[in-house]
Structure formats: structure tokens, C-alpha cells
Amino acid sequence: MTKEDTRPVFINLLRINLPITGIVSILHRISGFILFFSFPFLVWLLDRSLGSESSYLSLLEDINSNLLIKVGFSIVFMLLVYHLLAGIKKLLGEFFGIGETLSSTKITSWSTVVIFFFILFLFIGVFWF
User: 3-class SS at 4?
Assistant: First the structure.
């Protein structure tokens, strides 16, 4: 006699109630994926900044005047900050055992999100205004 398979065939992630730990983990992977593909943009910015003093000053002028470069830089920077914070949370759990229980994992996940939004608002206030 075979047992009926009740596992879901299609999982709609928008309908599942993910805990904060799952959301932080998925966003960490997505940010790493996007950062991997934004590497040419970062190398281009680094090349322009290290060419000469005049190329560095023209890069700063382009960042301040060109909205596309400014938005791209801001998105990549914020992805880098989030990926760094979530990576530190993961490393603390792996090496020091911080966040091994369910309650401490929720606390570290929420603290990652809160620190990220604090840095985000600080960055927006300094860089955009």
C-alpha cells in the first residue's frame, strides 16, 4: 500500500507567512546575487576614481548631477550594507553560537533589519539631501 503524497507541488512565497528569520535569509541571498552582477559597475566606479585627480572630481560631479549613476550607486551601497549586516549575523551564529535558539534568532534578525533601516535613513539624509 502506498502512502498519498501530500507535499505541495507549487509553493507561492507571497501566500506563505514566513518568519523574520526566513525573510532575512532570503533577502541576504538576493542581495548577494545582485551584488555579484553589479561588480562591473563597481569596477567602473573604482577605475574612474583612481585614474587621476581630475577623473575623480569628474566622477563626483557625475554622481551629483546624473540621477542614474546616483541611484545605481545608492542601490548597490545599500545592498552591500544589508549583505554585510546579514553576513555578520550569520557569522555570529556560526562561530559564537549567537542565535541558535528560536527567540535569539528572532532578536538577531530583527536587530539586523532595524540597524539596516537606521543606516538607510542616515544614508538618505546625508547623501540625497
Answer: coil
Q: What is the pLDDT of residues 47-78, one digit of tens each?
A: 999 999 999 999 999 998 999 999 999 999 99
Q: Residue 2 has what DSSP assignment?
A: P
For residues 86 and 114, the answer to whether their CB atoms sit within 8 Å is no
The whole-angstrom separation of Cα 77 and Cα 118 is 14
| Interatomic CA distance for residues 108 and 78, integer angstroms | 19
Which pairs count as long-range contacts for 41-44, CB under 8 Å and 24+ apart, including other chains? 41/72, 41/76, 42/76
Helix (H) or strand (E) holding 27: helix 20-37
Residue 73 C-alpha from the chain's centroid: 13
What percentage of the chain reaches a pLDDT higher than 70?
97
Is the CB of residue 65 less than 8 Å from the CB of residue 73?
A: no
Buried b / exposed e across 51-75, counting CB within 10 Å, b at 16+?
eeeeeeeebeeebeeeeebeebbbe
